[in-house]
Records
---
Amino acid sequence: MIQFIPSNEGVSILFNQELIIKHHHSHPSFYVGNGNDHIESYRGNYKIDDYIESRIPLESYKIDDHKITFYHHEIELILLFKEIDGRLIVQLQSNQVFNRFWMRLYATPEEKVYGCGEQASYFNLRHRNYPLWTSEPGVGRDKNSLTTFYADLNDKAGGDYYTTYYPEPTFVSTRKYWIHLDTFAYADFNFKNDSFHELHLWEIPNQIILSIKPTYLELITDLTDYTKRPPKLPDFLTDGMILGVQGGLEQVLKYLKQAQNAGVKVSGLWCQDWAGHNYTSFGKRLYWNWVLNEKVYPNLKEEIRKLDQQNVAFLTYICPFLLENETLFNEAAQNNYLAFNKEGFIYKVDFGEFDCGIVDLTNPDAYNWYKNIIKTNIIDLGIKGWMADFGEYLPVDCILHNGKDAKLMHNEWPVLWAKCNYEAVQESNKLGEIFYFMRAGAHGSQHYATSLWAGDQSVNWETHDGIASVIPSALSTGIIGNPFTHSDIGGYTSLYGNIRTKELFERWCEMNVFTSYMRTHEGNRPSTNFQFYNDDDTLALMARMTNIRVDLKPYIISLIQEATQLGYSVQRPIFIHYESCSQAYDIQYAYMFGSEMLVQPIVQPYQNVQEVYLPDDEWVHLWTGDIYTGNQSIIVKAPIGFPPVFYRKLGKYRSLFEEITKKYKL
Amino acid sequence: MIQFIPSNEGVSILFNQELIIKHHHSHPSFYVGNGNDHIESYRGNYKIDDYIESRIPLESYKIDDHKITFYHHEIELILLFKEIDGRLIVQLQSNQVFNRFWMRLYATPEEKVYGCGEQASYFNLRHRNYPLWTSEPGVGRDKNSLTTFYADLNDKAGGDYYTTYYPEPTFVSTRKYWIHLDTFAYADFNFKNDSFHELHLWEIPNQIILSIKPTYLELITDLTDYTKRPPKLPDFLTDGMILGVQGGLEQVLKYLKQAQNAGVKVSGLWCQDWAGHNYTSFGKRLYWNWVLNEKVYPNLKEEIRKLDQQNVAFLTYICPFLLENETLFNEAAQNNYLAFNKEGFIYKVDFGEFDCGIVDLTNPDAYNWYKNIIKTNIIDLGIKGWMADFGEYLPVDCILHNGKDAKLMHNEWPVLWAKCNYEAVQESNKLGEIFYFMRAGAHGSQHYATSLWAGDQSVNWETHDGIASVIPSALSTGIIGNPFTHSDIGGYTSLYGNIRTKELFERWCEMNVFTSYMRTHEGNRPSTNFQFYNDDDTLALMARMTNIRVDLKPYIISLIQEATQLGYSVQRPIFIHYESCSQAYDIQYAYMFGSEMLVQPIVQPYQNVQEVYLPDDEWVHLWTGDIYTGNQSIIVKAPIGFPPVFYRKLGKYRSLFEEITKKYKL
């Protein structure tokens, strides 16, 4: 129910009895204006300077049935309020052109908000502002860390608490509403104020959608009804882990054998170098021409068939960039499938010692061509999954086929890229059997990205870019409808003296049992970082953890089902199941793995015990069977292989979990 | 002559044929609005967040005789144009209250601007913006330096290219005008745009003053006619150097004797520890109760008389803060002479392991009391000079006697402090005989600060905070009317691994011969940094350089006279004497020492030759007598003791300089 309550010089707008907008002549809720931005980009890192030339408060208003016009003299912003499917839809229209827009959503001081895409530093977004712009998240992501200092100095790549692959103008409030602003423009959502959230956009959005539900679970289901949910993950992902290895067929089959001999349950081999290698000073990189390299992976189709027989999937890699002067680039260039620069030539993106063209996904012919490349070059080989990399690099000064400003397409690009992959799988009738994982995201990724991964963490313990950061990442994307995410076991980025240790790899491995799926990565500099295949101990740990994973299969399958049916993410904030537990709302390094398990991974080195806050329930420690009453913090031992995990004593998977305790106890 | 030239939807405002304001309906020249600022301070370092809530373009205008009203519907900004003393005076008034103001001054792409107070990173301000707010300038002042990284991390004290002790909304343009905005409010002057300078203030200024002259020399004289000029420096400052030493009377007299025995011409002993010591983790600091410590300096009045007989002045130190629970603090507290906090208690400022009260200089009784402290506790002892330290620390949340918002008083504080010192000297009839040196400044420092010093440089070679940085500092304060400045020989701040070397000290010493006066400083950590009194070689160099200084006396005295009569600073940008030399406008690490000498100090380590650009003239190398034709770059040898210095071959001091060449030649 929409209500307008005019007051002395103001108006309150309520939806289902909740105050949404509180406008007053002297504290307006809407502003329009113009700004000049200056965007510098360097390999996916952006320096954005905005200069606001005007910001006009729309202090006056008039009501006309379901329409409110906020205005300042001749400048009008018309808001049309509708209720559709139980949600509030506000359509906006202005009688003049503006490139800046601000709105103030009513807020309470104690309110918390979550979402806005993937947020790796802070799950609760309150008391900070969040520029929403897809980019490299940065190395270190903490201006107080030396890692970030050097990354900024050398590559402008240090990042900050808000830099993210996946920004989205969608969030969930503890006032039990979700809101989505229908735009892909640059945004800056400011949650610093006690009495309002100020939502700033570089365009007036077409519409705003808001929905209120009595519980968080209903809220998430409603939000994912709106965004649409992804297909289920393939079953094989619960049958073991994916080994991220490379070096050619012979080499990867050796790794497989080695792992299997050590008792590791392997459900996939992810060989990103299927198209060959490229060596740069950053490390060993891929050959960006997405065609099977027969020298490196000879007879692959047949080999994949053989692997299938032992239930090992073969996975690979693709991204929307094409290496200059190679076959795909040349074909695309001939057909005008690549984005242009302002001078009318093919736009070349510098990836560090090599240049690439950009497949123009706004060109339907290019889009279909690339979709077919995915089908013919990947799916037809029997490949079951891939990393669909990048999405966050669209240069703001390139010229696109659809004629839209690349600056306004920049944030939409990841979802176009997701959709291209989705349709390739869909048209091959393989949804639910084939999957891919993406780091970049946008509104729509909920449906079109079959899963996410948290990107390129530093191979260390730093809060904002190390092992811990993947947990808030999972919670924030999860709460706005992305149920499936995971992270590189061991992290990825080894720069500025950060070298992956055995301990880090092992902690990451044990944590990822309790995520959507398990996959390792060799990192950007494989030879100087810890690798599981050089360590029998670690192989033994991987055997232990994958066996646990397989034993959990019935439970995990139920979580995947729940995700596709109700939108609940596999990793969830504790408070969505324990709404009355006030402490749970600020927990960002522990989570529910489904409704039945609580996990608080070890994310610091040299730590063998962990303090865990248990919400109000009866809990059983997975590795000892010890029973704890919740609503208190307890301390448990947590040597490697025994991450702090608890299950609900009275839940329906109790007997499954009891079996695990018996088999794997501390 | 003031001209308004209306055009289609716009108006051009000219003064003496120069276009000053180019207003158009779609590109307005004036904006008003409101903002919410949030200022965090930590020991003189400020983090200023501003949130612009409204910015209204005043797109319309109407002309009424000498008045132009720029307006937006009912919002009016009335500008009254007058010509007084050949200058343009614009008085501003608004019919509504706003706390934010923007104006766009017409600019040309090739124009350069200089001034805005003391700017240590860039002399030409074009292509950057300059927040104008008095503060600690920071340690390193370069976000790409490790020094700054650690200073930020540990003390929020890294600074940036614009952080300065002395900001002023006054600048000189190469379009040969100077402009001053009559305000002490926070400002941000943005010189990034090709066609306008955007001047942003946190209040609407009462008036704007602008003056145009045919030459830079006339421009500077006119500006300093407006600001008023300082009294002359005492003659003794040209009779040798001031030794910055401490440790008590016996100790400093030993240093004096040691230096004199080595042949150093000493004209003063600067003993900042006259009131005693305070040891903190930052280093050896002063006892902030400005009363002679008789234990440390026994019988000082008589000792000063004895020093006077050998023409050695005694110098000391004071600042506007009083150490908690000490005699001056208690006296001030009893009389309500200290600033209050919002709770009505005495405002305590944390200086790192000790707290102080702030003498409320807006309270006439407090002001006069403190002026008398300077007279009785300092001048009456026969002291000839002092460091009048601080001025940039006024907390924005303190409550002042005059009832003004401390945020708006913050930038004015340095000039109040300067005036207090000035009047103490003036009322003692000692102007021109007694002097003091200040780092903080504001509009009015030109008259009330008898001299400046460049503050606390790092004891190293870093561009933005090391030895080099004092040159743009001198040029920028100089061009807006502060003729006398100098710097600590050897620098001050030794933190984060920066330790003063002998080479740095010696290069700084030889440079400062060619500044207003020479003074050493032991730095914040005397015992771990290089000190001249531990090195006979360096004493010999100081002997050489001070003897040169004394031999230059007739020339230097003429520069001091010129400064007080015409406003020309002792250190000047090359272009003010060589207007047609286009290359000179971007030189910031070389300068004219008066009209007759060009100096380009060595500001890098291990450097024994220097490339020097000589403007179009005939030049003689001071150390060899070699003659060079200008309008070219030449290379000279520059071992220690022989900084690159040239004099005009045809100038009137030629014979004096020739004598120096003979006596001190390379």
---
Amino acid sequence: MTAITATTTSPSAPVPAWLDELVEALGAGSVLTDPDVTAAYARDQAMLAESGTPAAVVLPRSTDEVSAVLRIASAHGVPVVPRGAGSGLAGAANAIDGAITLVLTRMDAVLEVSTADRLAVVQPGVVNKALRDAVATDGLFYPPDPSSYDWCTIGGNLANNSGGLCCVKYGVTTDYVLGLEVVLADGRVLRTGRRTVKGVAGYDLARLFVGSEGTLGVITEATLSLRPAPKTPVTLVASFTTTAQTGQVVEAVVTSGLVPSLLEVMDRTCIRAVDDMLKADLDRDAHALLVAQSDAGGQAAVEEMEALAQLCRDAGADLVHVTDDAAEGDLLLTARRMALPALERLGTTLIDDVAVPRSRIAAFLDGCDAIAERCGLVIGVVGHAGDGNMHPTVVFDPTDDDQRTRAFQAFDDVLELGLSLGGTITGEHGEGNLKTDWLEREIGPVSLSVHQAVKAALDPQGLLNPGKMFRSATVSDLAGAASLR
Amino acid sequence: MTAITATTTSPSAPVPAWLDELVEALGAGSVLTDPDVTAAYARDQAMLAESGTPAAVVLPRSTDEVSAVLRIASAHGVPVVPRGAGSGLAGAANAIDGAITLVLTRMDAVLEVSTADRLAVVQPGVVNKALRDAVATDGLFYPPDPSSYDWCTIGGNLANNSGGLCCVKYGVTTDYVLGLEVVLADGRVLRTGRRTVKGVAGYDLARLFVGSEGTLGVITEATLSLRPAPKTPVTLVASFTTTAQTGQVVEAVVTSGLVPSLLEVMDRTCIRAVDDMLKADLDRDAHALLVAQSDAGGQAAVEEMEALAQLCRDAGADLVHVTDDAAEGDLLLTARRMALPALERLGTTLIDDVAVPRSRIAAFLDGCDAIAERCGLVIGVVGHAGDGNMHPTVVFDPTDDDQRTRAFQAFDDVLELGLSLGGTITGEHGEGNLKTDWLEREIGPVSLSVHQAVKAALDPQGLLNPGKMFRSATVSDLAGAASLR
């Protein structure tokens, strides 16, 4: 799947010159080549995505060192795979044979938290939760909260434009990016964006790098806007006879103008898997559970959740419960966050990541039921119902060839269903090397050629994470795009 | 200032072949060449920015017609200046000698308003206010509200990433862009983005086009997210002995975690100019006026404004008044919106557009006072205090050469001051052809070369609004950027 591979090093192979240069620039302790050691950096959490063997894993400690790595790589034509903690779910961080894997986890400083400007300046290796904790002491809040928030890094969040449970009210990573420092393919250091709330100087390059999965540059610093700490939430839980009813509730939320700070769904498969894992005393007989919160504060939050409770009853909820008990709310959120790990205990999982317009959620959930029935496999449905970003997750036994075939078919059928409803093949996980074909299908040939033109402008040698997101341009692509150039 | 000019047509000159092709494609009624008629489309509201004479003004009615215009223009190497109503304040829409001015005002349909998905699909010629009115009937809200909202078009708002009075709580235009249809330089039609709330498929090309001032493509359709209609606001007005005190209040708002829906400032020059124009019974003796609103609803809004009132008193306000009277609030807002038109009655104006970090607003306002004193001219200060985006406006007599020189010096001094405080040379007006040199100064050589590389990737002939935002790459630039390519 990768378009470019460099020479693979093996214990017997001669050491390439660029490896000496890396050691010279960063020190031997920052350049790992022992295959037993580098294997730990070979892949992310997309267990079924392709992965190669890195020639070297480098762990820079500064922007200057990242710059040195990219200067050396570009001089020698060696591909580079940037990565953080490796919590990704699409193989974007997966190693490429013979390439350098550039690990940013040692650059983990929170450089500044400004209450007066309500922003933070961080290095890419800062763990999401570490940033959240660092700003919370000043009464501030960094909203984007992917499920892996306690170990994923901000650099990976930026590269994937990560979402999370907060998106329904607070948006995604890109909505918090003010400025970036990026090392370009040739090692030059770009500073783009700003420290101000507003600013339109030049192109919005910062948001071009956000979500580009390491294919355009390596983010070495980010200036992120923060919000005031949210108020203690009021939590609602409601159970339903069908998952599709939860879609109806979301539509009603949108048309009624409610803005909950969280609105999540789990189906019975997930409920039971989580309950088995956490012994959380969940309602194991429910077919679907909706968990919502309002952080509007005090009486406003209670009113918002009471209004939602009525929408749930109108949609035929079996049970609706509203609580301002923070501990109970936390428990429900933990249960929701544990849905994917709990499903993974049932078998190998293929996690889909489709976002559909909110008016089509019920249709999408019905469609997922039909796909599960057709393929004869369990599909656990969990997702960010409030923003239409659902994660139907196929559970199967990978040692059973027939199940494996049906699982991949079901995975594709879910993507197909999402596109047919006006949705997207990825709401927050990205393409990595898992959905490159699907991306081309979603965006079409004109957009693909624009992607390739932008990529070629910023990474003319095609060395940055090649083969991720979309195919590199081939000779015939370039001929086809001749009219663009 | 423009890098490319095509053959200028004059009544006696032979009609260029491309003009025949335009008439063939769009019909004679959509292709204007009479200089007396085309002059009306020659410039925007930046009265002192350079402007040329268009060879033709074309007014397409559809994406297909825009595509035809760009195919013809690229085939013949004719530059194209896209524009909407011409409310811009930096000359981005100003005509280029011999170029085609492409006016999008006839494409003025609101194609869809979806309450279920809380979005609207619009053509670029829709007037901002027309969109606001169209969605208000469904209880929805399109926040970005530049001061010219009753005549500026959404296409221009997108091209400039316009802000307005709402930004302090609701952000700017780009925060509401889900998807775009863009005609590329060669006439191909790109659809990018989505209808879903979330989505990370491919690069964020939509936000690359937003704010690119027509230099990368022509936006022909936009899918915009909407919000629930805000609640009736509670309004606060406070008067101060110095403008800088208002900056202190803003800092206190940020650190205290208040999120007003509006927080605007006017100095005495503006107060008196507006009062002269509107007879609005403003406090003519105040040195600075802060106008704020909360749309948090009911008691929450009252509490938010009472908290702000206390911050104003703490900063030494002479007078603080909170009202839930909607008419009184509207009057104060109208007064604020009329500040620039009112200043224009005093003389020719040079409107600056600096955004500074909110912690530096007081220092910025003090600095503006010093500049006014140094240059011996009136500088009326008006601005979006809450987000640090200020519009110090130099008033002068353009027939007085000395005043003119001092006015331009003051304009530059304000930009210099903004940069020295960590700010940006443009918070919302853009560069147009007025601030190309300043943009280069702000972003630096590495970012400039990335801008030029992106521009070259999307517009290899350099025909789209050449010379706007930044200099096109020259041969020596390209040699200097050889390492990037």
